[in-house]
Each structure stands twice: as C-alpha cells, then as structure tokens.
Amino acid sequence: MPSENAARLRIIFMGTPMFAVPSLKMLLREGYDVCAVVTQPDREKGRGHKLLPPPVKVCAVEAGVPVFQFLSVSKEGAEALAGLGADLMVTAAYGQILSAKILAICPLGCINVHASLLPRYRGAAPIERALLAGESITGVSTMFTVRAVDAGDILEQDTVEISPEDTGGTLREKLAETGARTLKRTLEKLAAGTLIRTPQDPAQATYAPMFEKGFGQVDFTDTCRHIVDMVRAINPEPGAYALLDGRKLKLWFAAQTDKPPRAPGEIVLADPRAGLFVSAADGVVEIVCLQSPGAKKMSARDFLRGRGKGIKAGMRFSAGRGVD
Question: How far is residue 206's CA from residue 121's CA, in Å, rounded to a whole number?
C-alpha cells in the first residue's frame, strides 16, 4: 500500500489503448485517488464497424471512475479538468499532445509512462521501431511531460529484454506490465520526496515516428534480418504483407534460414511438408505463418495444402514496399 502522503494524491489519468490499462489498474489497486480518466472517443472497429470504447474507458467504467472523452481537449474540457482539484496528472499512451494549459492544471505537473529507454525512441511508435531496428533490449521510462515530444526529465527506468519470438503485440504486453511497476515506484518516490529528475541529453535522442498509411509491404531486396524484424515489429498492427500475382498475403511470422539466395522475391521452395521459402537480398526467409484474403491466419504449410496449392518454386513476390 502507498504511504499516507501517496494515498492522498489526487490523480487525473490519461490513456487510451491496452498499454495504459495496467498502469491505471495499479493506481486503483494501490489506493490512489483517481478522480477522473481522460481517453479518446469510442471508435468504429472491425468489419461490422461497431462502435467500441477504448480499453482504458472499459477499465475506468468497471471501477466507477468518471470518464472524459476528447479527440482534443477543448477549452470547456480543460476547465472541467481544472475544477477537479487534482494534484498530479499521469499519462500513458493517451494519443494526443497536451497543451501548456493542460500541463499546468495540476500543481505537481504531469508524469508520462513511455515505452522506451529515453532518450532513445522518442515518439509514437517506440515498440515497433525498437523491433524494426533489431534491438535486443528496450524498456520503460517515466518522465515529467514538457511541451516537446518525450523530452522531459527522466524519473525512473526499467529494462526489458526482447526475445527472438517477440512481436509488437507480445512486447507491448511486457512493457505495459513493466510500466505499471515503474510508475508505482515513481509515485512512491514522489510522495517520499526522494524522486530525482535527470535531464535528457538531446544528442543521444533517437525518434520513433508512427508509420505512414500504407506502410507494411515487405521488400525482398532487403536483408533477411530486416525482413524478419519488420514482420514481427508490425504484428499485429499495421501488419506486414507481400504481393504474389496481385494477391495480398498478410505475413504474421517469418524466420531467417541458411539457404543460399536467388533473385530477391523468388520462391525457393513451396512444399506443404517443408514450408514456404522466399529469397531476400542476402539469404532466404521462411514464411512461417500467413493469412490470405478472406481466410484465417494459418501456418504456411497448411496454406500450401489449401488456398496456396498453385504456388510453386520460381514464382516471384513483388519486390517493392510502401513508403515509411
């Protein structure tokens, strides 16, 4: 349980996706006074375009915490938040840059939970960019928010190892749970008066911008390592894909092999017993799991037994890729 001082902290929590939920649950479980949750509006999802609430809203409603939903916090919204008398604002993947007026609402400022070891990977897609770069270690940082992207003073950090099997989805889950622990320690130190602020070194900063619309097509003129990392980095979203005879195949998992390369994009082997192997610039990639239009996700071997029966060695995947 938090100290008596921590328990008296009145907090506005701002977050939207599943990444933010463990941090919100931690605040509620530890007895912090979460006076309001701010999140993005409900959005249409899936083939049926059903209007669904963000995961943070679902968690807040279940806990009986008042919810505010803003695409962008209006003047009236800012006034409503200011009227709550909160001491501190906590953000985790809220999805919008906050104005100076919003950041000034709480006397203790705003603490953000960010999914990287700052100053590396500032920006909206630190998890995917770390995987795409082939990193073996990443982590979570808490920081005081300022009017510059992820540039505030670092408070606490925890490292997380990236396994070869990690995807964007599995790594996000790891970092979300770690983030809740990092935030817990941060708030305990804040309440105890032992929290240390460490300014970031701008010279060490790297950036993780969100992918542009249309990004995801695998370019088989890339190296095997980059193709494998790209496929797992954007699994499940936005998702990697490759084009074969005009057919768009979504790629869920790929692996590097020791087979010698041929022309980039050329199918080296397509066998229901052995699998699907495609040449890259410096070797051959095995397409382990994929999904064809209108079908379920399946192993490449099952695909070759069914919808992919006509795929043969010597056929070529398109070599181009969408803009990053």
Answer: 5
Cα dihedral sign for 86, 87, 90, 96? Answer: positive
Sign, CA dihedral 221-226-230-232, equals positive
The rounded distance, in Å, linking the Cα atoms of 15 and 70 is 11
**Taking the CB of residue 32, how many other CB atoms lie within 10 A of it?**
23
Peptide bond into 236 cis (omega under 30): yes
Taking 50 as the threshold, does the pLDDT of residue 29 lie above it? Answer: yes
Does this model's pTM top 0.85? My answer is yes
Instruction: Give the separation between CA 36 and CA 238, rounded to whole angstroms.
Output: 31
Burial class (CB in 10 A: 0-12, 13-18, 19+), 15: buried
Tell me, rounded to whole angstroms, the distance of Cα 248 from its chain centroid.
24
Which residues does 134 contact at the CB level (< 8 Å), separation at least 6? 225, 226, 229
- The residues that bridge with 256 in the sheet, in sequence order, are 285
**Distance in angstroms (rounded) separating the CA atoms of residues 111 and 206:** 21
73: helix, strand or coil: coil
What is the DSSP code (8-state) at residue 181? H
pLDDT tens-place string over residues 258-293: 999 999 999 999 999 999 999 999 999 999 999 999
Tell me the C-alpha distance between 232 and 56, whole Å.
25
Residues making up the chain, counted from first to last: 324
For residue 248, the surrounding DSSP H or E stretch is strand 247-256
Helix axes of 21-29 and 168-192: crossing angle, nearest 10 degrees: 40
Beta carbons of 199 and 153 less than 8 angstroms apart: yes
